[in-house]
Amino acid sequence: MKRDGEFEGAGVVVFGQSQVSLAVADAFLNAGARVVTDRDLKSDVFDAAQGQSPEAVCPKEFFGKCEAAIGNLDVVVLTMPPIKSLSLFDTGTAELREIVEKGLVLPVGFMQEAANRMMKKGAGRIIVIASMSGKTGPHRNVAPFAAAHGGLFAYARVLATEVAASGVTVNGIATARLEDPTSALSEAARQELQRGFPVGRFGRVDEVAAAALYLASQNAGFVTGECMNLSGGRFMD
Description:
Layout: E1 11-15, H1 19-30, E2 34-37, H2 45-48, H3 59-70, E3 75-79, H4 93-121, E4 124-131, H5 143-163, E5 168-175, H6 187-194, H7 205-216, E6 227-230
Parallel strand pairs: 1-2, 1-3, 3-4, 4-5, 5-6
Helix pairs in contact: 1-7, 4-5
């Protein structure tokens, strides 16, 4: 169980402007943390990279603004934008490069900078939330995103090994399909998809947020280099 008040006053940075990122930010706020998002800083870091090289986006400057707003940098949660459907054979080199740079190279730079800052104070939590397609193969029309997210999860494991002795943990959360109030799926299509989940339903963003709270908690201090499956039993390892 989470220790009462353990997030009171903690400094938390949440990347992304999806329903998942909003739920994660709200969960930490409700737990008493000081939270800043790239929305608060008037930019979506990953969308802001459109047309730029990853080197043009400055993690040091970004985290400097975050620390000015919330003080300590205790928890960093990176939520990747929702994946899109792209035909494997119709994805050109330029489009593939953009997806990998925004979905792997750019977030890796922020993970590096967060780890450097956390190591200096001897504590911290880094959590990356991305698509389950980064862990599984048989998903059609998501190859570039699967490659980027798979690389992100792999990088998180290596980073976890390198920073573990300093008191910093690095973990991932791999999500399968989540409930989406804006989805255009018909009820028949929705039910058909749900039959692929042993629990019989899609996931909820508040369940993702709860998983992030656990991985950020003191009770998860012995958990690092892991990638938690939030798949309703669709994928198990």
